[in-house]
Amino acid sequence: MSSRDHDVLIIGAGVIGLASALALLESGRSVRVIDAGAIGGGASKGNCGTITPSHAPPLAAPGMVGVALRWMLTPDAPLYVKPRIDPLLWQWLLRFAARCNVRDWRASTAAKAAILNDSRARLAQWVRDYGLQCEFAESGVDYVYRDRQAFAHAQAGIGALREAGIPVAIVDAAAYEAAEPAFKPGLAGVVRFDGDAALRPDRYVAELARAVRQRGGEILEDCAFGALDSTDGVVTVETALGPMRARDVVVAVGAWSPRLALAIGAPSLRLAMQPGKGYSITYSRPARVPSRPVVLKERQVCVSAWADGFRLGSTMEFSGYDDTLNARRLGALERGAAEYLHEPVGPQLRERWYGWRPMSGDDVPIIGRVPARDGVWLATGHGMLGVSMSAATGQLVADLLCGRTPAIDPAPFRPERFA
Known about the structure:
Elements: E1 5-11, H1 15-26, E2 31-34, E3 50-51, H2 64-71, E4 79-81, H3 87-98, H4 102-130, E5 141-145, H5 148-156, H6 158-163, E6 169-171, H7 173-179, E7 189-193, E8 197-198, H8 201-214, E9 218-220, E10 225-231, E11 234-239, E12 244-251, H9 261-264, H10 269-272, E13 273-283, E14 294-296, E15 301-306, E16 309-318, H11 327-340, E17 349-360, E18 366-369, E19 376-380, H12 386-401
Parallel strand pairs: 1-2, 1-12, 2-9, 4-16, 5-14, 12-19
Antiparallel strand pairs: 3-8, 5-7, 6-7, 10-11, 11-12, 13-16, 13-17, 14-15, 15-16, 18-19
Helix pairs in contact: 1-8, 1-12, 4-12
């Protein structure tokens, strides 16, 4: 092959693209990864780093439509839809609303639990086998409640989580406060997920890139994708560095998938996905921090502490590709944390971040071959869980491209469901 010819070309050097590259290299395929920007410069960068089978229940849940409508009047609410004329958004929201029922909720929960549980176990193996230095810890994650009614509601849903193979325990509020001096008194209770884990996401992505390069993979930054064409078993990709040809192309461009849908040859992505804007703030580490990652449930704020850092993150804003940093929504993270923690921020502010998550209409990833496009594959739609689902997604992509029986059932993730 010439320098322009490749076995597998991956478009996107975020956590999904790099995990797919690593799994394909381990399967004996040669790989080149290209990205329009820098390695891990998208949603992977501002993630809170929790590895969460506990997040298997989808955003499209019974009753969520009413909640979303009420929150539309509150610009700093955890879930916010910015009122505007956008036909694609409203069609996506109608699809989302149609799935806010018990049957579809259970189906999406089962699909997400399968990929999350596989990824959680596989990630621990990758950290060990590839020596990934990313502060990985099998710490578990706690959901902390201050409102007794909300805590009672959470306990009512524990059975469905256990059915999906997710271990859950309840921790008494008084015992938790005694063991966790970082918290203010007045908690209602805690739901504990000992099967969850945590890592530092920027270091995880950097370590994936290192492992890919050590195994012979090539990564090209500042190499934007333009279009592709699949003919006679060869996929030709137009890039900023000229045309490249490959036997297989994996498109892992996250929240940019709808904008590139026509160029990919997957027009259904324009209706299947929306960019969900998230925020995080990173500080130096305070003196008192929770002993494990926590989610402050009523405010939907995730709190992660690392050896030399402390991050508040979350929120979901549907405002298209609006590229302004909304100080009010960032402030909501700090205000929410202040309700629970004695030290809700660190002594030094290090970064105020926003980024777009790739939200599918059913909150389930889109992984598989593009319909009617031989050699073109999708790995997108992971929502807020790209880091959590990365290892399993990489393995599923490798299994599909190599014609093996996948470790998990690929049916719930097929792109055809949106065709």
